[in-house]
Design a protein that fits this description.
Elements (H helix, E strand, L loop, with lengths): L3 H11 L3 E5 L5 E4 L2 E4 L7 H9 L4 H8 L4 E6 L5 E9 L2 E9 L6 H4 L4 H5 L5 E6 L6 H15 L3 E6 L12 E6 L7 H8 L6 E4 L5 H12 L3 E6 L4 H11 L5 H11 E11 L6 E9 L2 H8 L6 H7 L8 H10 L5 H4 L32
């Protein structure tokens, strides 16, 4: 057994989401959003590098020695699965191990709005799940793939960096390909996937203009494309895609988004009131004719008002979703206010005033 497995086993026993290893500090666990040290000595550069080299292949060791960061999946002797990032910094080597549950969760288990199941019924177009790092985007997409795998007979091609959840084929054929192992890049993977008779293509990250363009082409030519972006709202997602492509393609990109973007789901993870878990809270955009017109006419700043009035279609603003979850005591208001745009609506629920700026409450509707 690799020596690093002892830290990972401890982390799993404690129910952590991540294990952090860095030079000069003891191992640390991410527990419900907080980073906490374990009772262990500070790790030296030589000690930690020895631990990490034990789990690397010869090729990975060579890349690390050449100065590259590493992203890969690792399975412990006990069967625990982790997504790993290994890097070098000023004081030496470091690594983060993100636990990947062995069972793919269902959308019901994630307690996300039922409309996400409807998004899985699209036969073509693009559905994006967005949010900052560590907000559960991969888990939500995995649950969507799991739902498709149980309810439709499709060919699903998943491009990931690295592969996290493993999907055994059920009603669907699920082909999982890893960037750097099976394909050179996400863009190359999408290009190849379109020659492999796909119904659904999952793009683990729309990280560059070439990948975005290939994903757009796939969505326009009769495929359902699921993907992620590191954006923190529906409007920011649309603007990011438009700004990511060359200026001469701006009008073409807006036309694509107006016609082929089906939905945007933006999520955050908030602590539960007892502090023992976290729950996903989501903002949802469903593309309508009105929103499509705002995109083509460069009026994306008016989209939030459409989300507010589109509740019958399943749409919701992040602030509205957070407030509803706070009022129903599903999440901790002290955590929720950190993600809210209009923090005044949350001030009366907050117990830790350190989170609350000095605000004028005179104009706040207490019934909101």
């Amino acid at each position: 057994m690799a020596r690093i497995d002892s830290f990972l086993k401890l982390g799993l026993a404690q129910g952590c989401s991540d294990v952090h290893l860095a030079v000069g500090v003891p191992p640390m666990l991410r527990m419900n959003g907080d980073l906490l040290p374990i009772k262990f000595r500070e790790l030296s550069d030589t000690e930690l590098e020895t631990y990490i080299l034990e789990i690397l292949s010869k090729q990975q060791s060579g890349r690390l020695a050449a100065g590259d960061d590493l992203d890969f999946s690792y399975v412990t002797e006990d069967g625990g699965r982790f997504r790993v990032n290994v890097f070098r910094k000023v004081t030496g080597i470091g690594a983060v191990f993100r636990h990947v549950p062995g069972e793919v969760p269902s959308l019901d288990e994630l307690n996300v709005p039922p409309i996400l199941k409807d998004f899985c019924d699209f036969h073509q177009g693009m559905v994006l799940v967005t949010g900052s790092t560590g907000t559960g985007k991969t888990t939500t997409l995995a649950a969507m793939i799991n739902h498709l795998n149980q309810t439709r007979s499709l060919n699903i091609i998943s491009l990931e960096d690295p592969i996290e959840f493993v999907h055994p084929s059920k009603k669907c054929q699920v082909i999982q390909r890893e960037v750097g192992t099976h394909v050179k890049s996400f863009a190359d993977g999408v290009r190849s996937a379109m020659r492999e008779d796909p119904d659904v293509i999952l793009v683990g990250e729309l990280r560059d203009s070439e990948t975005i363009m290939m994903a757009m082409t796939a969505a326009e030519t009769g495929h359902l494309v699921l993907g992620t972006l590191h954006t923190t709202g529906a409007v920011k997602t649309i603007d990011r895609i438009i700004d990511a492509l060359p200026g001469e393609l701006r009008e073409q990109t807006k036309a694509f988004l107006a016609m082929s973007l089906k939905a945007v789901v933006t999520q955050v993870l908030c602590k539960t009131p007892d502090g023992r878990g976290r729950r996903a809270v989501v903002e949802i955009l469903v593309n309508t004719r009105a929103i499509a017109k705002l995109i083509t006419s460069d009026q994306t700043h008016q989209i939030p008002s459409q989300l507010q009035t589109g509740r019958d279609l399943g749409m919701q603003l992040m602030d509205s979703a957070l407030l509803k979850a706070v009022q129903s005591k599903e999440i901790d208001p002290d955590d929720a206010i950190r993600y809210a745009s209009d923090k005044r609506k949350f001030q009366r629920f907050v117990t830790n005033t350190d989170y609350v700026p000095e605000l004028d409450m005179s104009n706040v509707d207490q019934d909101q």
